Amino acid sequence: MAEFKHNPEITQEENLVYKRTDLLTPATLSYCPGCGHGTAHRIVMEVVEEMGIQQDTIGVAPVGCSVLAYEFMDIDMQQAAHGRAPALATAIKRLMPEKFVFTYQGDGDLAAIGTAETIHTVNRGENITIIFINNGIYGMTGGQMAPTTLAGMKSSTSPYGRDVEIMGNPIKITELVAQLDGALYVTRQSVHTANAVRRAKRAIRKAFENQKLNKGTSFVEIVSNCNSGWKMTPNDANQWMVDNMFPFYPIGDIKDNK
Amino acid sequence: MRELHLMKGNEAFAEALIRAGADGYFGYPITPQSEVMEYLMAEKPYERTGMVVLQAESEIAAINMVYGGAACGKRVVTSSSSPGISLKQEGITYMCGAELPCVIMNAVRGGPGLGTIQPAQSDYFQSTKGGGHGDYKLLVLAPASVQEMADFAKLGFELAFKYRNPVLILSDGAIGQMMEKVELDPQVPRWTNEEIIKMHPWATTGKPPTRERNIITSLDLQSATNEIHNHHLQAKYRKMEEEEVRYELVNCDDAEYIIVAYGTSARISLKAVQLAREEGIKVGLLRPITLFPFPKKIVRELRERVKGFLSVEMSAGQMVEDIRLEVEGKVKVEHFGRYGGIVHTPTEIVEQLKSKLIGG
């Protein structure tokens, strides 16, 4: 292995173009290398930092790979039972309307066991931000089929590929919630390229800013990869995502009622 | 000054919640306790005190709203009836794990399954032994009057915050639906956010630069530290057993026989005691007010000087097991149960007392 040579010049204050946000704790991320969660965490915390609302933000962590989100985000957080994050967020916001409240959920959490909470929370138009990481698979439990697993896609519980005749269809939960009257802003983004990260961050910023309008729920889906669960290298996983996930889960705003 | 009112048990509970300074009620309609939310919606507490009242999409969502509110240090509450309480068990065990205070009222009805809407006491095991997963205990208060429905709303919040633990008020359709006079406490102001930050520094109120972030979770992936957390919880439950036992004794001083009953069956047993005394039978009533902690000590004291216990329950025999544990076979412990929503009559209690304990 080539010896790493540190160039002190590039870390001097005047040469810095980017640094890790202070609102990510020093804890080592528990995510697999190449996973989109780390980037998604970073941009959520960058938005909170840039808006200067650390003291006014309460997050709700899910069950699944991101169950430990509270270990990495330097804000007050609550950890919810599987799928129930929107219910917690509903009460937090109702009881502390001056706070910025968000949930951070995966596809099993939000689109399977928590479908009822997701739909009813958005339908009530709760003035919160929902961040939904969709990687089409159950990561933490070891690569089982998710409600968002694509037709034909292999998982440990659809080892020959998802057969929609037997296993049902993948669900476009984001398009579904966009129809609800309580949804103010619904968008689908990704974090696999620098450009995509910037767009996703703008969407998250908007979703947080929307809480000042008190006009409904903001819902940001981030289509992400799961290189471990998909059994691919990070690069291959990202390419597979572009080739297979994006055609079914197209990137872009779905609803903006602002 | 306490105000005198004539109210249903469910309504008295709801009014007492507002007056106790509750911040939020999150529920889902189910018979026989729907009057709680109906009363709250009609009373507009959000105008009176700023209290939030929200009808959730399910009992599961309701208890998780309670979780979210409790984690902010707010006084939050939910109520339901047996099948709905079963759905809430997930949220209840999470709240115990995360050590969150709240008040939960269960208007017990006959089960299992959808059962009947009539009163029953068949959720005793679920309430006192941990209805969800994991080693946990709820503080369980059993009201026997409309007055206690009101009083326990306030007491429930006090105990919930004292121990950072959910408090269950185990009522039933009879107590909830009956009308009685009730004295209500004056309105207490709701806590301000500043007061909450001071009193409950653990609450997720938003992280200022002056403190570490607050995390509310029941997750602990390390077995070694999870065991320490469980030791801490068990010590808390033992403290409850030492400090929070509540019960009532009626005619027990000279009693040869003791009827043990709580809630609705205690009210009926009181009449049975009177009827038996008129026949010259020396019988008294032990009414547990806390079901957890169970009044173990007084049962052990009584067992030394009485000839037998009769557990009168609207169930197939649940509390009787706790009595037997304390009596340790020293005297007879019998059970008389009606279930499926049927309530005992006082005369049949006297008959059972005679046939099972005195003649038997």
Strand fraction band of chain B?
15-25%
What is the count of β-strands of chain A? 9
Share of residues in helices of chain B: 40-55%
From the spread of the alpha carbons, the general shape of chain B counts as globular
Main sheet summary of chain B: 7 strands, mixed
Whole-number radius of gyration of chain A?
Answer: 18 Å
Oligomer: heterodimer
Kindly describe this structure.
The complex is a heterodimer of chains A (258) and B (360). Chain A is α/β, with parallel strands linked by helices. Chain A contains ten helices and nine strands. In chain A, the strands form two sheets. Chain A has a seven-stranded mixed sheet with strand order 2-1-3-4-8-7-9, sandwiched between helices. Chain A has a two-stranded antiparallel sheet with strand order 5-6. In chain A, helix 2 (69-72) links the parallel strand 1 and strand 2 (76-79). Chain B contains 14 helices and 15 strands. In chain B, helix 11 (263-278) links the parallel strand 11 and strand 12. The longest helix of chain B is centred in the middle third of the chain and has 21 residues, at 223-243. The chains are: A alpha/beta (258), B alpha/beta (360). Chain A binds chain B through residues 54-58, 60-61, 67-68, 70, 73-81, 84, 87-92, 94-96, 99, 116-117, 120, and chain B through 23-24, 26, 52, 54, 56-58, 60-62, 64-69, 71-72, 74, 76, 90-91, 94, 98, 193, 204-209, 213-219. Strand 2 of chain A pairs parallel with strand 9 of chain B.
Keyword list:
heterodimer, A: 258 residues, alpha/beta, two-stranded antiparallel ribbon, 9 strands, B: 360 residues, 7-stranded mixed β-sheet, 5-stranded mixed β-sheet, 15 strands
Topology:
The complex is a heterodimer of chains A (258) and B (360).
Chain A: H1 37-51, E1 57-61, H2 69-72, E2 76-79, H3 85-95, E3 100-106, H4 107-113, H5 115-124, E4 129-134, E5 137-138, E6 144-145, H6 164-167, H7 173-178, E7 183-190, H8 194-209, E8 217-223, H9 227-230, H10 234-248, E9 252-256
Parallel strand pairs in A: 1-2, 1-3, 3-4, 4-8, 7-8
Antiparallel strand pairs in A: 5-6, 7-9
Helix pairs in contact in A: 1-8, 4-5
Chain B: E1 3-8, H1 9-19, E2 24-27, H2 35-43, H3 45-48, E3 52-55, H4 59-71, E4 76-81, H5 82-98, E5 102-108, H6 124-128, E6 139-141, H7 146-163, E7 166-172, H8 173-177, E8 179-184, H9 193-199, E9 215-216, H10 223-243, E10 247-250, E11 257-260, H11 263-278, E12 283-288, E13 290-292, H12 296-303, E14 308-313, H13 319-327, E15 332-337, H14 346-358
Parallel strand pairs in B: 2-3, 2-4, 4-5, 5-7, 6-7, 11-12, 11-14, 14-15
Antiparallel strand pairs in B: 1-8, 6-13, 10-12
Helix pairs in contact in B: 1-2, 1-7, 4-5, 11-14, 12-13
